[in-house]
C-alpha cells in the first residue's frame, strides 16, 4: 500500500510542478532560463511555446492523478516523455557541452525519477486488484 501512496504523491507533484514551470516559462520567456536572458526573440518565442506545451504535459499528469486507480499506462507514457527529455539533455551535453548547473541538476532529477516512476506505475492498480486484460498475442493457443 505504501507504493500506491508514493505513486499518488509523485504523480500529483509532477502535475503541479510541470504546470507551474510551464506557466513560468510562458510568462517570463528568456528570463526563466538561466543564462538565456539575451538569447533574442526567436528563442523567447520558442521557450514560451514550449512552456505552454509543458503546462499541458503537467495537466496530463494531473488528469492521471484524478483517476482511481491511477492508470499504469498513463504513468508509463508520461514517464517515457519525461525520460526522453532527460535523454535530450544528455544529447545536448554530448553535442554542446555542459549547460548551466541548474539544468544539470534537472537532468539528474529526471534520470533518477524516471526509473522510480516506471517501477511505481502500476502500484495503485495492483493495490486495487486491477488486472491487465490478456491480449490476443498472450492468449494461450486454443485446443
Summarize the structure.
The protein is mainly α and 143 residues long.
Helix content percent band: over 70%
Number of individual domains: 1
Low-confidence parts: none
Give Rg in angstroms: 18 Å
**Major beta sheet, specifics?**
none
Instruction: Give the helices and strands as they follow along the chain.
Output: HHHHH
Report, as a whole number of angstroms, the end-to-end distance. 40 Å
Q: What structural category do the secondary elements indicate?
A: mainly alpha
Give the number of helices. 5
Sum up the overall morphology in one term. Answer: elongated
Provide the β-strand percentage band: under 5%
Structure description:
The protein is mostly helical. The chain has one domain. The chain is 73% helix and 0% strand. The protein is built from 5 helices and no strands. It has helices spanning 2-28, 41-66, 72-96, 101-120, 123-128. The longest helix is centred in the N-terminal third of the chain and has 27 residues, at 2-28. The termini are far apart. The mean pLDDT is 92.
Amino acid at each position: 500500500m505504501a507504493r500506491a501512496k508514493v505513486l499518488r504523491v509523485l504523480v500529483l507533484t509532477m502535475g503541479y510542478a510541470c504546470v507551474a514551470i510551464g506557466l513560468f516559462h510562458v510568462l517570463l520567456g528568456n528570463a526563466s532560463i538561466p543564462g538565456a536572458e539575451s538569447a533574442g526573440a526567436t528563442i523567447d518565442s520558442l521557450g514560451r511555446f514550449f512552456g505552454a506545451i509543458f503546462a499541458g504535459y503537467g495537466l496530463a499528469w494531473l488528469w492521471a492523478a484524478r483517476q482511481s486507480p491511477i492508470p499504469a499506462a498513463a504513468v508509463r507514457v508520461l514517464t517515457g516523455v519525461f525520460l526522453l527529455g532527460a535523454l535530450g539533455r544528455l544529447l545536448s551535453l554530448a553535442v554542446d557541452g555542459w549547460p548551466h548547473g541548474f539544468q544539470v541538476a534537472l537532468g539528474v532529477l529526471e534520470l533518477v525519477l524516471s526509473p522510480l516512476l516506471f517501477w511505481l506505475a502500476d502500484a495503485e492498480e495492483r493495490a486495487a486488484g486491477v488486472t491487465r486484460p490478456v491480449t490476443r498475442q498472450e492468449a494461450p493457443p486454443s485446443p
